[in-house]
Amino acid sequence: xxxxxxxxxxxxxxxxxxxxxxGGSMDTEMREPTFWVLTVLAAGRNHGxxxxxxxxxxxxGRVDLKVATLYAALERLRKAGLISPDGDETVDGRLxxxxxxxxxxxxxxxxxxxRLEANARQARARLNPAAFTPVVxxx
Amino acid sequence: xxxxxxxxxxxxxxxxxxxxxxxxxxxxxxxxxxxxxxTARFERLLRWYPAEWRKANGAAVVGILxxxxxxxxxxxxxxxxxxxxxxxxxxxSFVAPGRVSRISxxxxxxxxxxxxxxxxxxxxxPGIEFAGTVGPFTNPSIAAGILFVAAFAAALAxxxxxxxxxxxxxxxxxxxxxILSEIYGWLGPGWTAVxxxxxxxxxxxFPPQGVRATLWSAFGLVAVVVLVTFVPVVxxxxxLRPVTAGVGFIVLSAITAGGIFVDRRxxxxxxxxxxxx
Lengths: 139, 277
Known about the structure:
Chain A is α+β, with helices and mostly antiparallel strands and about 140 residues long. Chain A has 6 helices and 3 strands. Chain A has a 3-stranded antiparallel beta sheet. Chain B folds into 3 domains: about 20-95, no CATH class; about 100-205; about 210-275. Chain B has helices at about 35-45, 50-70, 80-95, 100-120, 140-155, 160-185, 190-205, 210-235, 240-275. The two termini of chain B are about 40 Å apart. The interface between A and B is large, with 52 and 58 residues.
């Protein structure tokens, strides 16, 4: 009897769990679209379409952002304080919203670059056994 | 700290298109389609997004879509973009984190108070054994009530998407319980309670935009509740049917007149405000 009335609660419970998983802070790595958006903005303020084009160019075509994905990423980055809107301009009758990277964004990007470089160093050393000196505890 | 202060690898200092480099001069010639029609075609893609989001970001997103289409030499959105916008819009409507609007929060507060009254006073009857009773409650609406109270708690915890999903699921449960109650003759919930719960939960999940829409929605809910409460009662007495129709007409007219009166006052107030602004 009780189980029958508890059953309707399974779906919302699952939704809560999934949303916590999705929105949780389990990720320690920066997603690639985020990385490229911050990287493009590190060169200066820019607008949405330029961010998409820049991310595609810098990633050599791997990251082909859709506008929906871009705006979801921009919203996430804005809420995290890594970027901020930097004014709207109308060009050729079209609104362009500009964004700039914040100090926190620069710090996070620099940290991610260091992490990637450290990873790459380790991988490169193992790909070149002649120059590889095993690290104690990792060999 | 400035962007230039960071010691980034050389490969990051590529030139990307900016307003200057990506100007109208570098854009391929546009297809021969009316600009308004073309823009409207792209704007339609954003219908999946909530009105609030469209108001904040719509023009900028349409600008990007038009730029993309120009580069492709097309006057239509790509299938990939259309699908991504549909998925993104649905996600923004139902899942994306965001603050709980005042109307949602107000509706959820009213819903929580209604739950406290309905389950604490109306349906609280320990010891009664009848078809459809659940524990100390006279009908299974408590299942929806738990979801509504959880939606209110989620709103208090600023978990807007969770709150919205719980309100929607609770609405479905309440409607199902109402229908089953009608079929199996349980001790409720009556359609008045169902409509109140469902109406408030619906406003919480899909809050009307703007004062006028909110007022008309509230009037609509009151009208529906009045109808489902009084009409069946009076209609059951055959001799009173003409009276029923008359009373119903008067009540609905009064509600509509009230709505129109408030709407006109509101519009007059707003137009006066804009003149002085």
